[in-house]
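Minutes, project check-in
Item: structure for the 162-residue chain
Input as provided by the requester:
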Amino acid sequence: MAENNFDIINARFTYKNIPLYKLEKYSFNDLTVAYDSFKQISGVSEVLILQTASRVEVYMVINKEADAPDARSPAGQGLIITQIEKAWTSLTELDQWDLDHFDQTLEVYRNDEVYPHLLRLATGLESIVVGKEEILNEMKSSIANAKESKVSGTIINKLFCH
């Protein structure tokens, strides 16, 4: 079987790592601007943003990265995770504590870790109230918005197929 030349990344803040009253600060007020910012990250070909009352998630398809240097080094400043952090913080109004703890509260999943999360999310197992059915409509709305904005593509559309 041929190896993929892309990675699927899910970066998220949820009620599990941020108090609900603070989670709104991590949300994007203008999805069009947010989509543009994430698409400008080198190697990103597709984006989908899922925002609910209990989570803010960004799904991206990126070119596969080679082994990366330490994120604190000058060479590490180009890492996808560093670029995601820069884009995210530029789009939100986080206070200094949130900025200082950004990398400790951001959850990042890659490839095979993304699929089980989406299944758990779609079935309501990742909701504050287990089994909450509204998440399916929120996921459908997110993929429709990404398609309308022309920022999703074959991979994300298939991942969120509706």
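Outcome recorded: Residues 9 and 110 are 5 Å apart (CA to CA).
No further action items on this chain.
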